[in-house]
């Protein structure tokens, strides 16, 4: 069978790599893909991003399964378009994807259905937003109400940082937010203290299957310093998600979300990512929802997945997730993102990438912001690569990952040297 993966980042490279391992697959196409998917003989890049053109191509080429990676095509209604023409596709509809594409929709939904989250207010008027910050003080969180490629959240430690964030998002739009209907808005919410974790599940509208737990590192520099990014590394499993936390997250957050979406007439299918903040007592609250797998969490999770991903995706598109029992490698997987010079504010493009190793059973270099130029891989985005490895524990996975990362070179490469430190601590 032919499978199509929509997207061109590290998450999509990891998904396509895993799907291609299925004996049922004859070819995996990645649209548009990157240098890593182009270099893989089991994958084929497809230079199409338009939703209708993708659907037409999938029909003409008898694609039996499509998996959507990033948020933009979901928000553009790619799932609705494919389903309207009888094509199997895994992802949420445009209406359901509002859980991610609109922070205001998401927060109102959680308030309506009693899902634990931070207290908040939504503003389109900068004057009122600034007054609210003055009233609450810092630390405080400012979120853009729109898609911002993982950079639309500012955790402000001072009131001035929060005021600047409001101006960046509402007035200047320096974060490049894709605003929703009604114009620019921000959600300002209370700061939650604790430890973050990524809780990702598969949904078929009614049934839910939890993926392996994971935790990512958002800040650019070691020790969680520097600006927020789309994610500088991740590992799986996440020790902070104990059996009790897992049960609470499913009972108090995930299942009420699926039931709530169904009740609101918007059945949820696809990956659902709940960013959790877990307090010292082990109580999780929802920081945000994403309507896709996380990046870079997908890379370690795919390294650990032993089940045939095609079987899982087919069950998910046919409402049979309750019949699936996901199997996981007992080892730890850890991924380190290598980012371009200037990331996250102004990433440089066009730097030659050298020293890429051969794929190994316990180590993979997944591409994200890369392209082929004159037959050579070059940087083409902020987060360039995710070096990922499997080992018996976090420390050994760190050793393996950093040994591989040290071989890879491009000018100005930035990466953290402490991914996984919380799990070791």
Describe the structure.
The chain is globular. The chain has a 5-stranded parallel β-sheet, with helices on both faces. Strands 14-17-20-24-21 form a 5-stranded antiparallel β-sheet. The chain has a 4-stranded antiparallel β-sheet with strand order 6-11-7-9, sandwiched between helices. By secondary structure, the protein is an alpha+beta fold. Strand 18 and strand 19 form a beta hairpin. The mean pLDDT is 94.
Topology:
Blueprint: E1 2-7, H1 10-19, E2 27-32, H2 35-39, E3 43-45, H3 51-60, E4 63-68, H4 71-75, H5 78-84, E5 89-90, H6 98-101, H7 103-113, E6 120-123, H8 126-136, E7 140-144, E8 146-147, E9 153-156, H9 159-172, E10 178-179, E11 186-190, E12 195-204, E13 208-210, E14 215-216, E15 219-221, E16 225-228, E17 233-236, H10 243-263, E18 269-278, E19 284-290, H11 298-304, H12 309-317, E20 332-339, E21 363-367, E22 370-373, E23 376-379, E24 383-391, H13 394-405, H14 421-424
Parallel strand pairs: 1-2, 1-4, 2-3, 4-5
Antiparallel strand pairs: 6-11, 7-9, 7-11, 8-10, 12-13, 12-18, 14-17, 15-16, 17-20, 18-19, 20-24, 21-24, 22-23
Helix pairs in contact: 1-11, 8-9
